[in-house]
Each structure stands twice: as C-alpha cells, then as structure tokens.
Specification:
The protein is mostly helical. 59% of the residues lie in helices and 0% in strands.
C-alpha cells in the first residue's frame, strides 16, 4: 500500500496544495478534512504509524480551520484489532472503492466509545 518512496514528497506537497484550494470551496470543512486524511493514508509516507500520523495531521488541519478536532471514535484504540478498527478500515475502503466519504466522516466525528 502507498506510493514509492520517491513519489511521497511530491504527493504530500500536492495534497497540501489541493486541500488549501478546497478550503472555503464547495465542501464543508469536515469533508475537506476527511478527504485530506484519506489521501494521506493512501500516500503512506511511513513504514508504520500512517493512520496515527494522518489522524493527527487531520486534527491539526481541522483546528487550524477553526473547528473542533475529530473524535475518531472517542478513545477507541485504532491500533488494536477490534470493532472500532474494523469500522475505521471499512470507512477508508468505502472511500477507496466507491468514493463515498460518508462513513469516514461519520467515524471521524463519532464521539461514542467503541469496544474492541
């Protein structure tokens, strides 16, 4: 998964430019943010920790846009196998497969506690 190491710097730069262009456009802040998150996970800049990095970077983006950071399942340990991780990965796959960002947006904004 992810891009070749030599494609990563340009892909990240393109991602930041694209998201800057989207801010204040047709999509609400939350949609811009989950699309940013999805693309950063896809770019996969690290061998490990890409989801954690993408969630942190997305929260920084959301707060910079003046919104409350995402809940990401409120306390769910997404690094551990379980229901919350399965839901998160299914939401990412829905965006991959169908271009449907709704499940990822709902999960990102979810404040409920998931049990593994």
């Amino acid at each position: 998964m992810g891009l070749a190491w030599f494609e990563i710097p340009v892909a990240v730069e393109d991602l930041v430019r694209n998201m800057n262009a989207q801010v204040g456009g047709a999509w609400p802040c939350d949609e811009v943010a989950v699309r940013f998150h999805h693309r950063l996970v896809f770019i996969h800049p690290f061998l490990n920790g890409n989801g954690r990095h993408a969630r942190l970077a997305t929260d920084v983006l959301v707060e910079a846009l003046g919104e409350k950071r995402f809940g990401w399942g409120a306390g769910a340990r997404l690094t551990d196998a379980g229901t919350a991780r399965d839901e998160y990965l299914a939401a990412l796959r829905s965006a991959d497969r169908d271009g449907d960002f709704g499940p990822l947006l709902r999960f990102a904004r979810s404040e409920r506690s998931h049990r593994s």
